Structures
1.
Amino acid sequence: MEKTKIEVIPVILCGGSGTRLWPLSRAEFPKQFLNLTDDLSLFQHTANRFKGLTSNAFNLNPIIVISGENHRFIVKAQLAEIEINDATILLEPSPKNTAPAMTLAALAGIEDFSDPVLVVMPSDQVIFDSEAFRQAISSAIIAANNGSIVTLGIKPNSAETGYGYIKVNDDLVARVYPVVDFYEKPNKAKAEEYLKCSDFFWNSGIFVLKASVWLSAINRYHSEIAIKTKLAWQKRKNDPALGGKIIRIYEEYFNEIPAQSIDYAVMEHAIDKDLDIKMISLETVGWSDLGAWDAVWNSLPKDVNGNAKTGDVILFDTKNTFVHAESRFVSVVGLENIAVIETSDAILVVDRKRSQEVKKVVSFLNDSKRQESNTHRKVHRPWGWYDTLNEGENFKVKRISVNPGASLSLQKHSHRSEHWVVVKGVAEVLCGDKTEILKANSSAYIPAGQIHRLSNPSINILEIIEIQTGEYLGEDDIVRLEDNYGRE
């Protein structure tokens, strides 16, 4: 009789904010969607990592992505770029950390299979040896199918305070270790102590386990998360307006769920209980969570002076420094162990060894209600993007790019008028009861209060320059009457 294969579902947790990688990472476009190491984003690399995961012992099913509502179009677009079109995307109404996300994944998994093995991964990690990673995951799947919770650990090579740690029983000469305990991010002295011990590993945040094992554990150790997440899941809605298998979780119940990590909600309480928790070492695969600019510098190729750079950069008499130039030429003279990050609206200069402290800048921006913590000058939308080129009293100038076949919402503005000039492509402009087709060097005027819509009817990108005039030019001066993307 042929042995039944294990059903496996990859799960990507895509809800992080990446505050320590500001100013590149921001709330509306966080680090998992950035191209930090090459032409693909960290999220795309995570999704691609599963493509080569094959075995005669298991069936690999389409991935589940758990993301915030604001990032749904970025997730969908980036998956399409790497030709993944069968993913299920679960939309969290609010950020609740990883334990509720894992619970949603388990509930979704048992909808299609009686008890699948979940391979749960953060979306923002770098793993250089993909084949070694897949071998470790394959071993973890076999162990998880026998009832174990398997986590993946990394042998430390420095005293990092930005990672959690796992202590294992290393008496056995084996790749799979029994877990003794989980530890939260330590101070510097503790991290130095852990580095000297052979039984301490960095916690990667990667877990492999059966859906039923997690649901039983979360119900036992944090029943409030289990109960309220199940209620929110039961009232989910598959929104066809968004296209594909995109599921909205019921907001009212989900917002009541306590925000807890997987480790804090279950793992730290389950040690020495009846849960079988094991760890597989990833020490050979080259791993980083790119949690701060020092880690990004460490992951990139360097010149003879230990410098890494991206963009239009020149360095003189500079050592062990990372410079990222996004929109301007950047020159650096006589610095050492520094990170310089330039974007169109913000510049960060920080001692690399103190790059964990960048989150203090983000906290200040949030407390001051400054938009630089949340959005870039260039803002992505489901139909394309816009870039605010200039603004002043009673005027704002934007460059707008509309994807082929896409349309902005049918809308009106109470306080502003708009002038549109087509730079490239073909625009279909609805203004009141009149529709016209505009090509390059043509323009249209949209008076305040007029119902209007901008569409791209062609197979090429449409670009326009929009000039807004009026006494109030805030983004909240939009009344949407009809939208193709389910926005209100």
2.
Amino acid sequence: MALLATTAPLARADDALDAGDLWRHLRHHAIATDEQTSLLAPNRPFFVVAPSIGSKPSTGINGGIAGNIAFVTGDPSSTRLSSISGGLKVSEKGQTLSGMKVAMFLPDDRWFVQGDNRFSLTSLDTYGLGDTTSSSDADNLKYNQLRLYETLYRTVAPGLFVGIGLDVNQHSNVRPGTGTEATFDQSAYALYTQQHGFDLLHQTSSGTTASLMFDTRDNAINAQRGWLLSATYRTFFDGFLGGDSSWQEAYFDIRTFRKLTSDGRRRLAFWVLGDFVTGGSVPYFDLPEISGDAYGRSARGYTEGRYRGDSLVYGEIEFRDTVTRNGLLGYVAFVNTTTISGGTSDTHLFESYAPAAGAGLRVLLNKKSRTNLCVDYGFGKQGSRGLYLAIQEAF
């Protein structure tokens, strides 16, 4: 989901201290006041371009340059904070990753524009369908990915949005990765693709979206309270903008946040999502998968695409707390699980699970937006594990 920041005050407390304040203190510069650092002013965008570093199992350590612009298009009392972010990275696995995400509210929140656009020269370990596959059965594939997901929402009630959109997801130049040339023809990807009549080298899904979203979070970057409920139905068409087949997908995303202390420094976060193929023949890479959410932050403890199938349900609980009274340092502990249907064993939802757990550290980068630097380590079954380094919370 996009970052739906609200117009509610975003500072943690009067004595909150972030990484920028610490840097200014070390340089003996005055710490900026709330008025000086406020982003909630019309026609006063806040723009940042900086080196970026991250990590997750599917890419390893990655680095490059990233930029973000935050702005308000209308009266701050009735218009939420908008953001456009993007970047270009290279990874230790030889991938080139680029993308741009848009979350823009027009004056008085009458309209909301959401975009998820990516272009990558990348690779991924692939497996058979279902959540009972063995970790030793991985086949590494290289491919190019182009994704253009654009949705326009209209406000119909406070916090309630209805949207329509256009989706294009293309995977091209699919080929065996290092060490898998001899087994490519017998890989799970190749067998599935041939069985469903798709081209081994190039697959495209193109279609339209209908969405409903309800958002009462006080801050989407790092919420202390509120709900997010989102439901999306995608219909893809054979021959439309190069689409290779007709199929349908239903997707829902539910998140809620509960304070355990009055100041919100200690709280619980809950996340449930579902992704279901409701009809048609689906290209392999478009099937529901672990870490298939917009920011790839679900199922910490597993690599992206470790489990894939016809339907997926995911749940997570995370405990969040701060170590220092000024909010500069914090930590989280989380547990999650995924259940997937599909595969040669004809696995059904809720028959088997892929659980994971882990913990992480937090450094407050910006007290106005509550943006954290997040360093997490997660463990899953069959020895799966991974380091995750990112900006902003997983959900």
3.
Amino acid sequence: MKITKLGHCCLLIEENGVRIMTDPGSFTIPQQEQEKNIDLILISHEHQDHLHVDSVKKVLISNPQAVIISNSAVYKILEKEGIACQIVEKTMSSNFKNIQIEACDHKHGPIYQDYGQVQNTGYFVNNKFYYPGDCFSDPGKPVEILAVPVAGPWLRIGEAIDYAKQINPKNCFPVHDGMIIPQANFGVMVLQHFLKSSTNVAIPEIGKEMEF
């Protein structure tokens, strides 16, 4: 599996010839709009840093073949814009061109009381890579590669470390760090310090492919 971080939570995953984009949001508009040959777009939830509707429209112009998978809340937003979306949520699974996509539903991580606690769906790709969106959800099975959210109003870095320890993946790398400059270094530094004995922490460079 090859993964390229376009920024924040927008990733490009390549597996068995299938190209998958996650969360085309407001922090990564230039990067996501230039990508071609996208087969599948996974959207975890409706917040703008994960779903930027106008940019999604432009991504689809360049990639008319792309299929969007998300949850019911995102489906309603996209339906109003005339954008097709397949619902895969809760504990549902779907097979896309022989790539298994499994959903893991939880509320968005708490910011303050119930503010912003929209439906959040994490996605497990081909029994290898788990992308949780904006919560610390456990897919309930071994994870080879984990995207770890490391910054934002809904989390503390200690929670991110505990989450990575709980999941105990073979490999991990930081996401949800678009508000940090430089973006990757902080998350990598902290994860490497606390996970060095159990998990390989990959160092993502924006636009550079990582192979697992």
